[in-house]
Amino acid sequence: MKTPMIAGTALVLGALFATTSVIAKDLPKLEVKDRYKVGFAQMESNNPWRIAESKSFEDTAESCGWDLISTDAAGSAAKQVADVDSMIAQGIDVLFLPPREEKPLIPAVKKAFAAGIPTFLVDRSVDPKNAVAGKDFVAFLGSDFIQQGGIAGQWLVDNFKGDKAVIIELEGTTGSSPANDRKKGFDDVIAKHDNMTIVASQSGDFARDTGRQVMETLLQAHPDVNVVYAHNDEMAIGAIQALEIAGRKPGKDVMIVSVDGTRDALQAIIDGKMGVTVESSPFFGPLACDVMKRYAAGETIEPWVQVKDRVFTSANAKDHIAEAY
Ligand code: AHR
Question: Which of 84, 183, 228, 303 satisfies CB 3.0 to 4.6 Å to 133 for a cystine?
Answer without folding.
Answer: 303
